[in-house]
Amino acid sequence: MSPLTDLLGSCIGVSSAAIKLRWGTMAEISKVVLAYSGGLDTSVILRWLQENYDCEVITFTADLGQGDELSAARASARAMGATKIYVEDLREVFVRDFVFPMFRANTLYEGTYLLGTSIARPLIAKRQIEIAQDVGADAVAHGATGKGNDQVRFELGYYALNPDIKVIAPWREWDLNSRSSLVDYAETHQIPIPRDKRGEPPYSTDANLLHVSYEGKALEDPWAPPDEDMFTRSVSLESAPDQPTWVEIGFEHGDAISIDDKTMSPATLLTALNRVAGANGIGRTDIVESRFVGMKSRGVYETPGGTLLLAAHRAIESITLDRAEIHLKDELMPRYAELIYNGFWWSPERDMLQAAIDRTQDSVTGTVRLKLYKGNVVTEGRRSPKSLYREDIATFESDQVYNQADAEGFVRLNALRLRTLKKQRGQVPPR
């Protein structure tokens, strides 16, 4: 920044970064669609956009099942001068077109994370771009920080869907470089600050029908345990019932369609699973993950219904998919999970993997019975009209299907290279 810019900024009480905006890109932007949650970050961003870009701000809030704060988000956006306010119920679309396709792959990032935040971003980005086109906006904006994954997920989605869109990422532009500075800004500008149960600014959270995430505050120390009063969707193991609960999940072509023989819509079904799983202390995960931007991050997640879906889907696949299908899916899954985590939902390679995964689901139909008890999910039964399991073949009793003597040649052929190695090298291969 030039000395002249710094001097001018100090004279008129505006930051040098804002002066740069006023002289540069700000003149090109008159209307922005902001992904708005109503929380601290996006509330500050709404006011900051108005002040620094002198532009019309339109807010978009996606109802993905996050809870009661949507009415508050609408009221907050109206009070802060948003010229148009979009609050849209996308719960069914979210589960049907994003969550369920992901679960067909049994997706886990780094073996533990069910990608609750990651899978929501492509839908939000898609709808945000559509609104921008409808209202003739010059730009879209988001509240993701320059340290996180979400900036990548949002912006890869924006550019994939509209290559010429302008993107405003305030965390990469302003000098509000901490949550405490956001609180100070909010108090100075009389912006309401959300509070937690203790009357403090809350953890950084993301919530939707699939999960709730918690980051920041005490959780930045990976040795510190999470506060029990932080959780909203699951009881502790100590508070879970002393008697187990059973639930049967029905599948058709890889997607869950019913609970205990009651057919439900995707969002209704996931809501019900969240309720029964959370009541049994299921779905909490405390992990340190590898962010796409290069750092380690500690997060605590509640994914009660998703935990049941994963267990049940793997169980129904165990009797309906061929061995090679299962093994190849398990090889593809980490790459598929990484694409979603890193923000490449709208990429051709994700489409390609999705097509292969979906092709395997034609026969994944049937019912799985789960036993839920104090955080545990136990598969107790599975059945399918398309089952590959044959009791007359698998039985340890006498049968007329499998000739056990046939196994001798199979074993000898598979042992041939091992016998050759031993004879030639005099040792077995290293462990």
Please explain how this structure is put together.
This protein is α/β, with parallel strands linked by helices and 431 residues long. The chain folds into three domains: 178 residues, Rossmann fold, CATH 3.40.50; 177 residues, Argininosuccinate synthetase, chain A, domain 2 (Alpha-Beta Complex), CATH 3.90.1260.10; 32 residues, no CATH class. Helix content is 42%, strand content 18%. It has 14 helices and 14 strands. The strands form three sheets. A five-stranded parallel beta sheet has the order 3-2-1-4-5, sandwiched between helices. Strands 10-9-8-13-14 form a five-stranded antiparallel beta sheet, with helices on one face. Strand 6 and strand 7 form a beta hairpin. The longest helix is centred in the last third of the chain and has 20 residues.
